[in-house]
Amino acid sequence: MFILPSDSNDLRFPPVEFASPEGLLAIGGDLCSERLLEAYRHGIFPWYSGGQPILWWSPDPRAVLLPSKLKISRSLRQTLRRDLFHVTLDTDFVGVIKACAEPRAQNPNGGTWITAEMIDAYCRLHEQGFAHSVEVWAGDDLAGGLYGVALGGAFFGESMFSRQSNASKVALAYLARQLDAWGFVQIDCQLPSPHLMSLGAIPIRRKDFLSLLDVALALTDRLGGWRFDTDLVVL
Q1: Mind giving me the DSSP string for 123-192?
Q2: Tell me: the pLDDT tens digits for 37-72?
Q3: CA-based angle 90:84:91, to the nearest 5?
């Protein structure tokens, strides 16, 4: 197991090929913005629970959603057509990440990997223009959303939440359509799951993910606060 230095001036990660079969690559370090961005540029992300040291992962296979390949189910299409929600970008990043950290309805007593330390770190990335949120509103109430990090033409999805049916899927639908319009190459969904596969994500080999990531990182960063295009078409 590779142990990262706590020195924020030493941001080196081991090659991802040294990750365990589960994808665990390294332990330790810190969550400074520079280290987080360096990790994402190499297909690595932090994922750990409260009371644990920082754990860094690069799984194989990797779940990826190509923005143009989003699958909109019949129920989601009906939800979008009913115009139940108002969707925004980068309007309430703090509200979204804190909602993502809340216990899930299916596991109300469960813990969260989005610790206070993680919230602070990603809020800093948001202030620096790298982290972004999608908010789904039912009136004045936050009904769902998601957040992640953008570098070049890659969006690294971190977490999503729903307080109303289909709200997180609405967030992803709007995000995918906007990223496609902006020429983004991929949405990194990290680990494959039936839920993500139903939305169009596919598992690919880590080496293929890294090749796709190289293409995405060659594009210019879209920094700062994001807004949806006024002529964006979701359906």
Answers
A1: HHHHHTT-EEEEEEEETTEEEEEEEEEEETTEEEEEEEEESSTTHHHHHHHHHHHHHHHTT--EEEEES-
A2: 999 999 999 999 988 999 999 999 999 999 999 999
A3: 10
For the record, the structure tokens of 131 come out as 């982290």
Rounded to an integer, what distance in angstroms lies between the CA atom of residue 169 and that of residue 166?
5
- 171, 136 contact by CB (below 8 A): yes
Pull the structure tokens for residue 30. 């810190």
Sketch out the chain's domains with CATH numbers.
2-59 (3.30.70.3550), 63-217 (3.40.630.70)
Q: How far apart are the C-alpha atoms of 183 and 219, rounded to whole Å?
A: 9
How is residue 125 written in tokens? Answer: 């990335």
The secondary structure of 30-60 as a DSSP string is ---HHHHHHHHHTT-EE---TTSPPEEE--S
Residue 219 Cα distances to 67, 154, 232, angstroms: 16, 9, 21
Token couple for 111: 């813990």
d(CA 119, CA 147): 11
* Cis bond upstream, residue 46 (ω within 30): no
CB-CB contact of 15 with 210 (8 Å): no
Element at 94 (helix H, strand E) = helix 93-100
Residue-wise pLDDT for 80-98, tens only, equals 999 899 999 999 999 999 9
